[in-house]
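Consider the tokenized backbone below.
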């Protein structure tokens, strides 16, 4: 599978190109999260999906490639994990949360 899209994918994505298309050619959907470089040179994270498109006879004449920008989602997941780690490792936060939750009126 060739095309201009692959020139913007990081080295790991270009190395995965063969196994990715082989997976789709075998009739299975391929998914991967890969770095992607936009025109201004900044790096984004994309979820690459390659779907086999079957004809009426069950052959696969086409592969459909989609890339979804997941950069913001990945950042949010990383920030959430930092917060979870902070809470799990903070006795002050835990004691404050328990104290607030246990107040009776």
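A designed sequence for it:
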């Amino acid at each position: 599978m060739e095309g201009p899209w692959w020139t913007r994918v990081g080295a790991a994505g270009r190395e995965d190109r063969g196994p990715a298309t082989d997976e789709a050619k075998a009739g299975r959907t391929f998914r991967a999260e890969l770095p992607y470089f936009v025109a201004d040179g900044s790096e984004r994270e994309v979820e690459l999906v390659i779907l086999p498109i079957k004809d009426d006879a069950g052959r696969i004449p086409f592969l459909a490639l989609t890339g979804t920008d997941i950069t913001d989602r990945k950042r949010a997941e990383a920030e959430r994990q930092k917060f979870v780690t902070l809470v799990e490792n903070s006795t002050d936060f835990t004691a404050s949360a328990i104290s607030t939750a246990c107040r009776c009126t």
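Residues 71-88 form the longest helix (18 residues).
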